[in-house]
Amino acid sequence: MPEEISPESERSVWSNPGDSTIPSPLALPRHRVAMYDPNNPRLRLANATREVLQHSATSTAHADVFAQAAALLEQAAALLEPGPHGRSYHASAEGAVGGATHGFISHSPVTGPLNGLAGLIELESNPNEIIATVTYGDAYEGPPGCLHGGLIAAIFDEVLGFAQALSGAPGMTGRLEVTYRSPTPLHQPLKVTGRFDGIDGRKIMTSGEIYAGDRLCAQAVGTFISVKAEKFAALNLDRHTRE
């Protein structure tokens, strides 16, 4: 059976010493181990979703094959629809003030291994930066053979969001500026780096790059605005009220 991660264990993994409300990105690899267990049925579902998205973007099969695949997906949707549904929303990026991470990290549409929309991103961390590695397929294509520019911005928002949590007073994105230096290729490993650069009042400064091998593909500068835990708790309460 895959390891279950309780909110209590997440909090002990992510919290900085002496502060139970600020999660630490330094625990990223440790937290994600259980979510990458090949026997985890939720991961199997997410990986199958990734495969479907990839093949549906490129397949030239006969219409009958698409009809059969659609019928199977409709059965899967009908199986999942009755629920129960719901999850916590605590994060290390914008939601870092929440104090735990399972809901966002596992289900993020950018880095969540349990979200079939996300690429399978490996994360590493040290005291000053977050490093992500990922390879994208044709389902994420923008220009021919290249990663969609909007997704590049989303990746930066996520990785810089992890990096800003190193400030100890994390918040939400205030400004994100992306400079596209060269086409970002599909089907090649990409290295994404996000750094915590400093604090000015409530402003948290970050920067990062995306490389394909030795080639610089894009750069980003991000400013995050520190948010009190009470503000994030209010957003979370409002979210649950709407569900």
Automatic annotation (TrEMBL):
Q: Looking at the keywords, is Transit peptide present?
A: yes
Q: Which residues form the Thioesterase domain?
A: 145-215
What segments bear the compositional bias annotation Polar residues?
Answer: 12-23
Please name the CDD domains in this protein's record: PaaI_thioesterase (cd03443)
Which Gene3D superfamilies does this chain map to?
A: Hotdog Thioesterase
The biological process GO terms on file are: apoptotic process; fatty acid metabolic process
Compartment annotation = Cell projection, Ruffle membrane; Cytoplasm; Mitochondrion inner membrane; Mitochondrion intermembrane space
Q: What is its EC number?
A: 3.1.2.2
> By what name is this protein known?
Acyl-coenzyme A thioesterase THEM4
Q: Where are the annotated segments for Disordered?
A: 1-26
Cellular compartments per GO CC: mitochondrial inner membrane; mitochondrial intermembrane space; ruffle membrane
Recall the GO molecular function terms of this protein's record: hydrolase activity
Q: Which InterPro entries match?
A: HotDog_dom_sf (IPR029069), THEM4/THEM5_acyl-CoA_thioest (IPR052365), Thioestr_dom (IPR006683)
Q: Which UniProt keywords apply?
A: Apoptosis, Cell membrane, Cell projection, Cytoplasm, Fatty acid metabolism, Hydrolase, Lipid metabolism, Membrane, Mitochondrion, Mitochondrion inner membrane, Transit peptide
Q: Which family does it belong to?
A: Belongs to the THEM4/THEM5 thioesterase family.
Q: What's the short name of a Pfam family annotated to this entry?
A: 4HBT
What is the native source organism of this protein?
A: freshwater metagenome
Topology relative to the membrane: Peripheral membrane protein
Coiled coil where?
none
| Catalytic activity field | decanoyl-CoA + H2O = decanoate + CoA + H(+); (9Z)-octadecenoyl-CoA + H2O = (9Z)-octadecenoate + CoA + H(+); octanoyl-CoA + H2O = octanoate + CoA + H(+); (5Z,8Z,11Z,14Z)-eicosatetraenoyl-CoA + H2O = (5Z,8Z,11Z,14Z)-eicosatetraenoate + CoA + H(+)
